[in-house]
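ok new one. same drill as before - structure tokens go in, u give me an amino acid for every spot. 407 of them this time. try not to just spam alanines like last time pls lmao
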């Protein structure tokens, strides 16, 4: 079962404003946002985790140099002893309800999916992993965590009492959501957290590419050290694990958004209604009412065409293979494959899709329902994977609360 261990975190000095020093995950930051974050504070996490592409191949070494300089200056300091780090995000969900997600940052031992300890839940889109691998080689640090879900019951109950004490670090993000951190070093609770996480296979919620990159880096380091991958000898090295944010897999802890689709590049006259009509019953619907709650209530997918036309798509009985996962993303992938050649752009937020259709930037918008916690668990534990870009876990943990030295 997954090995989850405390570690001596590398953290900013108490004098540093964490709202200025932290950043969103690297893969959701635009070039404009990166420039703004970099200018916000000379120690902002993007200087290390998302080095400026304008610096070319040298950027990875510059990131490593920035990390070393901040440690020499005392801006970043290594904690005196290994610990887990309790991390909480307080936010308002899409219905305006105040919620929170509380989990633990620790060092998760790397294993391959076929070993059954760490389970991916979703296929990934092709993406160059060389960027993350080059950065890992240069810095020898985990700079941002993957996000893991444990089906085991009890993790939340173990860690929530700690959040009654004042947080050691806090930051507000761009949505004005509050992020907080506590150090968990009580030996009895540390052992209990270890045991809970180790009791069930862990599901990777977010950060599949980072996990795969960490595996590649581990194998490189083992090879250099003459350690066989299938028989690591001695105590685990720092590179045998990766930084992970682990939470309990429950509706109370998770807020999952859908990732929608914009379709472009279809040839003139493509018969969208004829092709989709073979799979779905299509009914006109008010454009402004194609919101997530409506789609869930109607049990349908939303379709938007250029201008102001909205429709509901309901699967026809028997139109899909029974073995297909019961997911909007899976059904849409089948239907899209039957269209003439085209391109798909993934988009967050219903309003962004509607705006793109009103401005005629795309030929079709598809609004999906979010996957449920039960669907995520059933897919991963059944050895299946959801189609790419099915889930968007939200809000995202900030990069910069804790870094991890791989030694």
């Amino acid at each position: 079962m997954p090995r989850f261990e405390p570690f001596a975190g590398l953290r900013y000095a108490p004098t540093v404003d964490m709202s200025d020093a932290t950043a969103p995950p690297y893969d959701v930051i635009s070039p404009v946002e990166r420039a703004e974050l970099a200018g916000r504070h000379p120690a902002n996490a993007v200087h290390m985790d998302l080095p400026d592409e304008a610096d070319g191949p040298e950027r990875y070494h510059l990131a490593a140099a920035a990390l070393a300089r901040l440690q020499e200056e005392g801006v970043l300091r290594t904690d005196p002893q290994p610990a887990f780090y309790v991390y909480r995000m307080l936010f308002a969900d899409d219905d305006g309800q105040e919620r929170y997600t509380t989990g633990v940052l620790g060092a998760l031992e790397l294993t391959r999916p076929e070993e059954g300890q760490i389970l991916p839940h979703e296929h990934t889109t092709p993406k160059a992993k060389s960027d993350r691998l080059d950065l890992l080689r240069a810095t020898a640090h985990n700079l941002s965590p993957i996000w893991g879900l444990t089906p085991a019951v009890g993790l939340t109950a173990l860690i929530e009492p700690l959040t009654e004490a004042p947080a050691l670090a806090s930051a507000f993000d761009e949505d004005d959501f509050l992020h907080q951190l506590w150090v968990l070093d009580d030996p009895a609770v540390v052992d209990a957290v270890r045991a809970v996480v180790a009791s069930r296979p862990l599901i990777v919620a977010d950060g599949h590419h980072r996990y795969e990159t960490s595996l590649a880096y581990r194998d490189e380091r083992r090879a250099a050290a003459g350690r066989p991958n299938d028989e690591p000898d001695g105590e685990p090295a720092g590179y045998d694990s990766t930084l992970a944010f682990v939470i309990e897999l429950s509706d109370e802890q998770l807020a999952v958004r859908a990732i929608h689709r914009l379709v472009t590049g279809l040839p003139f006259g493509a018969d969208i209604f004829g092709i989709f009509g073979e799979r779905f019953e299509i009914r006109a619907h008010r454009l402004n009412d194609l919101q997530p709650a409506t789609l869930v209530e109607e049990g349908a997918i939303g379709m938007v065409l250029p201008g102001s036309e909205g429709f509901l798509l309901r699967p026809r009985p028997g139109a899909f293979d029974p073995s297909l996962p019961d997911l909007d993303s899976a059904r849409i992938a089948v239907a899209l494959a039957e269209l003439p050649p085209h391109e798909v752009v993934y988009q967050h937020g219903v309003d962004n899709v509607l705006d793109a259709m009103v401005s005629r930037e795309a030929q079709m918008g598809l609004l999906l329902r979010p996957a449920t916690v039960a669907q995520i668990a059933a897919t991963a534990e059944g050895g299946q994977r959801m189609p790419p870009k099915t889930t968007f876990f939200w809000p995202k943990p900030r990069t910069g609360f804790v870094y991890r030295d791989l030694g």
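The two ends are 24 Å apart (CA to CA). and btw The CA atoms of residues 150 and 248 lie 5 Å apart.
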